[in-house]
Write a structure and sequence with these properties.
The protein is mainly alpha-helical and about 150 residues long. About 75% of the residues lie in helices and about 0% in strands.
Amino acid sequence: MALAAAVMLILEGFGIVLLNWILSIVVDRQQMSLAGLQPRAMSTGAWIAGGLFGVYLLFCAGVLLRCALRDRAPGGFTRIVLISCAVIHGVLGAFAVGLVGWVAFLAMMVVLALLVLTLVAYGETHRATAGNGGPEGNGAGGNGAAPAPTSA
C-alpha cells in the first residue's frame, strides 16, 4: 500500500512540475498580468511554485518508499509530513471537483485514500510490535504489555 502511494506521488510530482512549466510558458508568451505584476515575475513564480510542490511530493514519496522497504512506521516529523500531504490532497480534491471535474476529484481521493491507509496500517500498534522484535518480543506476549497479575 505504501509502495502504491509512493508511485502515485512520484507521478503526481512530475505532473505538477510539468503543468506549472506549461503554465509559466503560457503566461510568459501571452504577456498575462495580475494586479500589475510583471508577466516574467508571474512566469517565474509559477515555475518556482511548481518545483517546490514537486519536491515536496517527491519527499513524501521517498518517506513512503522507506516505510514500504523497511516495513516500519514513519517517525514523528515524517509522519506529520505525510499527514499534511493527506490534508493537501483533501483540499485539492475539493477544489478539483469544481474547477476540473469528477475525474480529477477521483484521482485526488485515490491518493488521499492510499495515504490514509498507509498511515493507519503503520499505526502505533505496528510501531510497537516492530520495536519489540515481533511476537517473541520481550516475553510478555510481544505487545510490550506487562503480564497480568495472578491471584495467589
